[in-house]
Amino acid sequence: MATEKVKVYEEGEKKKGLPIWAWLLPLLLLLALGIWLFSRSHSNNETANTAVPATDQTKPDNSPGTQPQTRNWTAASIADAIKQNGRVGFNDSEVHFATASAALAGDSQAVLDQVAQALKDNSGWKMRVVGHTDSTGSTPANDTLSQQRAQSVMAYLTSHGVDSGRLRVEAEGQHQPAATNATDTGRAENRRVELIKD
What we know:
- By secondary structure, the protein is α+β, with helices and mostly antiparallel strands.
- 41% of the residues lie in helices and 12% in strands.
- The protein has a four-stranded mixed β-sheet.
């Protein structure tokens, strides 16, 4: 008669499975990757949010001939333009902002000081401050940006003696281009701020 061998397990004996390092190591690697990605995106956002004054080097269209011509504005010439046309517009080289920002560049102050004086000299005028962008970026982002830029110009004017009750802000975004958005020169013309007499 054949004997059968049966293996009997003792109740206290543990079953062997994967060692702890086999599942802990992949988790640690995933955690390290997540921390690296988070820190990388966080540092990129800080860099992108740092306001840099706009100069020809920070504007996207800085090659020769791509910037609109800068006019020599005075309070009298601004007032004359408004009297004749009911509006006056300032291109990207006259009143400009850092790329994708509503922070006025320091060299915009000279023109805006003349605008403030023209409006103070003609205290009966009520004006719309209208912001425009080029078509670079999304439509909602450009609408928001043009609103913020117009608000920055209005804030500058009111801080220089123009009654805020005489001004209101409008945003046109990329919806009313003055030129084609297919060229650098056209996009530079489209980035502008207008004052329109009500």
